[in-house]
Amino acid sequence: MAITSLSFILFIIAVFIAYFAVPKRFQWIVLLVTSTVFYLSYGIKSALYIFVTASTIYGATRWMQSITDNQKKYLKENKATLSKEEKSAYKDKNKKARKRIMVLTLLLNVGILCVFKYFHFALEQVNAVIGLFGGNQISDVYKFIVPLGISFYTFQSVGYLVDVYFEYYSAEKNYFKVLLFVTFFPQMTQGPISDFEKLSKELFTEYTLDYKNYSWGLQRMVWGFAKKMLIADTLAPMVKDVFTNYSQYTGITTLIGAFLYSIQIYADFSGYMDIMCGICEVMGIKLTENFDRPYFSKSIAEYWRRWHISLGDWFKKYIYYTIGMSNWSRKLATKTKDKFGKHLGNTVPATVALIVVWTATGLWHGATWAYIAWGLVNGLFIIFSLWMEPVYAGAKSKLKINDNNWAWQAFQILRTFILVTFIKVLPEVGTLSDGIGLWRQVFTNHVIPHTKMELMPYVNWKHNVDILAFLLAMFFTFLQFCASVIQNKQPVRAYFNKLPQVVRVFIIAVLVVLIASFGVQATWDAGGFMYANY
Amino acid sequence: MDELMDILMEIDPDIDYANETNLIDGKVLDSMSILALITEICDVFDIEIGPKWMRNENFNSVEAMWNMIQAIQEEE
């Protein structure tokens, strides 16, 4: 069931009706049933794996919880008779048992993810090594259909498992509530990757149909469809053309194509988030936000705090801090402090953690060397900025640069957007050498195009409808830019909802007509959402 | 408490630590500053901050951090 299809719209209408028609205590059951239906619409085989994940995570968390509960009970009952050493030995034994359960469940679920996502890549590397020694290569006869949203639901489930292990909160007793947490359809295919504690509060609260939620939710859905269908899907074939034929295009043509890609991927991913957040808002559910105007960031590190926020938070919570706070990382920091001073010493844990996190982030996005390189380039920029912080601060002070100066801020934003665009295209062109080839093309082919056909050959200038679709995509990109500028000062949605109802209905109606006129064809040609491939 | 304040002032002297109660949730401190902060706290107070203490509420204010340090010292 494609999100941009009529069947999905009908499905959502059915969900809304059922959700508010049943007694409130059954609302979450409606979400569970509809989420299951949604997932099954992509195939029964694929659904098997999400049930394995939900079931093993449920079993493991309940088991760990029972050990914790029994321990508390036992220690309370035998408080007077047990010595300090006996208590400590008993706690250690239980801790080891809980750790075994957590590690095995983690390995099983991450293992499933790795087999589906990385088997072919790993085999390629093994064959490359065998090839070096002239051995017989292993034939890759396995064909896997990657289960829908496996990267997202596995990370979310593993997060819950680890949280229960560290006793951040208790394990959920009801299996079906855990199943809903894992399969909840608005966030299962492309995130956000939610925290159980936060999402469960939203999912299991009872809601009454509220006019504000209903109208604001619908508005956000329509805006999301407009971003996806009028911007992202219109630009998709043009970007594809640039990535395929960049070696024949001039540097400026290729550069414009790269910027179009930045616009496309933001409209695609944030459009999806707007649709899903809008659906949830109608039902009174607040979904974790995944974007905070990322193209207005003043550094790469800030950009990653504002783009795909939930994935960044997941890596931060479960990998970055675990590595950065490990004993060996801190010992290394102490040694570095002694030799190279306090600043560099204090950056060691972050540096080590960032290298691991960014390699993992690259691999999470795709099993290719280009994605690994993309992750490392991002990481290296952040690490370099971290190391150079005192130098930057000194230089800014000498040059009397005020951080609040608008021109300086605009420069930082523009610089970050350009850098982010160059990094973004690296894994998307094809192989790593294709990505580097596109960079080279931008900087080495200085031919100046003289006509619009030469400047942007990927726009079909011969057909008025295609030109209009392109201009509409640019207009909506400009609108998005304006909305982001306003958002910096006041919430855009509150501002929109102050308009007379007639005007609001008119604007929404125009958007719907434009989506139906231009977006449907563009989406038909472009296909699904980009992040669904991750 | 003064030692903790010294560490924080070294991380970012522009923050009003005495009144700020949203250091993490409000994204006043970024993850790199937090790691530098933890490294310094562990060194100065000779404690280990295990993953179970890594919750936003333990780092949102100076008072919360101080309570966490004392709780870890008692536990150790």
- Characterize the overall form of chain A: globular
Average pLDDT of chain B, to the nearest integer?
A: 88
List how many beta strands of chain B DSSP finds: 0
What is the oligomer described by this structure? heterodimer
The global form of chain B is globular
Low-confidence stretches of chain B: none
What low-confidence regions of chain A span 5 or more consecutive residues with pLDDT below 50?
none
| Discrete helix count of chain A | 22
Mean pLDDT of chain A: 91
Please, how many helices of chain B?
Answer: 3
- In helices, the fraction of residues of chain B equals 40-55%
Strand count, sense and barrel status of the largest sheet of chain A are:
none
How would you describe this structure in keywords?
heterodimer, A: 534 residues, mainly alpha, 22 helices, globular, B: 76 residues
Walk me through the structure.
The complex is a heterodimer of chains A (534) and B (76). The mean pLDDT of chain A is 91. Chain A is built from 22 helices and no strands. Chain A is globular, with a radius of gyration of 26 Å. Chain A has 534 residues and is mainly alpha-helical. Helices cover 51% and strands 0% of the residues of chain B. The radius of gyration of chain B is 11 Å and the shape is globular. The two termini of chain B are 19 Å apart.
How is the topology of this model organized?
The complex is a heterodimer of chains A (534) and B (76).
Chain A: H1 6-21, H2 27-40, H3 44-77, H4 84-132, H5 150-165, H6 175-183, H7 185-188, H8 196-203, H9 211-245, H10 251-282, H11 300-306, H12 309-324, H13 327-340, H14 342-365, H15 369-387, H16 389-398, H17 406-425, H18 432-444, H19 452-455, H20 464-489, H21 492-496, H22 501-526
Chain B: H1 2-11, H2 31-45, H3 62-75
Compact overview of the structure:
The complex is a heterodimer of chains A (534) and B (76). With 534 residues, chain A is mainly α. Chain A has helices at 6-21, 27-40, 44-77, 84-132, 150-165, 175-183, 185-188, 196-203, 211-245, 251-282, 300-306, 309-324, 327-340, 342-365, 369-387, 389-398, 406-425, 432-444, 452-455, 464-489, 492-496, 501-526.
